[in-house]
Amino acid sequence: MNKSALIGTVFGITIATAAAGIAGYSLLDDSADPSTAATETCYEAQVEQPRDAKDDKRIAGTVIGALVGGAVGKDVGDRDITTAAGAAVGAIAGNQAQKKLQDNRTVTTTETRCVPN
Fold this sequence. Notes:
Helix 2 (59-77) runs antiparallel to helix 3. It is built from three helices and two strands, in the order αβααβ. The longest helix has 26 residues, at 3-28. By secondary structure, the protein is an alpha+beta fold. The protein has a two-stranded antiparallel sheet.
């Protein structure tokens, strides 16, 4: 093989390899063809979530309800049984009142949501 044929063969192989590499890269590159790229529409949404309760056992409502119920029970009947019954009913009412207050407390946050086109 003469020197010109050898140089031509090496040069041809180099050009062919480079062309194959470029063609393969363009096939793998998603951004080369914008019609195949997935598009999304994003927007900001206000989301309400329940706030974490500081007193999840509702002890404060139970104690305050028992104290108020006991005082009312003592004034109504002036006996130990009415005081105890008032305290029990007040404790239940106070517990449920605090539960209702805690359930209605929310925190509003902003989230970014995206939907495909």
